[in-house]
Fold this sequence. Notes:
The protein has a single domain (4-152), classed as 3-Layer(aba) Sandwich (Aminopeptidase). The protein is built from four helices and seven strands. A seven-stranded mixed β-sheet has the order 1-2-3-4-5-7-6. It has helices at residues 13-23, 30-38, 83-97, 112-120, and strands at residues 4-7, 43-50, 53-63, 66-74, 102-108, 124-129, 140-146. By secondary structure, the protein is α+β, with helices and mostly antiparallel strands. It is globular and about 40 Å long. It binds coenzyme A (COA). Residues 23-24, 72-74, 79-85, 107, 111-114, 116-117, 120 line the site of coenzyme A (COA).
Amino acid sequence: xxxxxxxxxxxxxxxxxxxxxxxxxxxxxxxxxxxELTDNPASRCWVAELDGHVMGMLVGWLIVDEIHIAxxxxxxxxxxxxxxKKLLSFALEAAMDEGAISTFLEVRESxxxxxxxxxxxxxVEDGRREGYYKDNAEAAILMSAPLTRAxxxx
Length: 154
Ligand SMILES: CC(C)(COP(=O)(O)OP(=O)(O)OC[C@H]1O[C@@H](n2cnc3c(N)ncnc32)[C@H](O)[C@@H]1OP(=O)(O)O)[C@@H](O)C(=O)NCCC(=O)NCCS
């Protein structure tokens, strides 16, 4: 499986939005992706492309020396094939190239797959927000990790 990792472009938005909508119970408003792509200077938007189609997407916010993973998703038909790890590794490495020394994210406490993936990258739980998600009042687990080249070799 030959996956290409690259910057998101406006042409990708339709597929990116469709992955977002099938992946999350609270998807982003579609216009948010256009905003992240063109109007948010902190945004770093990446996609994983397979056979000419977007199969994974990640939006990060680089704030000073920290990269906040704002969203990441793989198309449901292509999960469990390493795309999430490739995307996260690529985005973290790119952020390190820009001076990031740490990374941060929030994840639903029931999201076992994502939690497992993040732990592989060295993320540890360092906080919790009760009732954070509006649809089911689920808690958010706050995770962070120092960034080193070694932490990208999961
Ligand atoms: C989380 C997500 C992005 C992972 O993407 P993916 O392409 O399936 O990930 P990978 O195949 O690279 O797997 C990465 C790791 O995640 C973990 N993982 C993936 N699927 C899993 C599952 N069903 N159960 C437990 N762990 C799982 C494993 O640790 C895996 O590493 P391994 O292959 O060495 O075992 C994907 O499940 C997804 O899009 N989920 C819906 C959106 C979402 O919840 N995003 C995260 C928001 S915080």
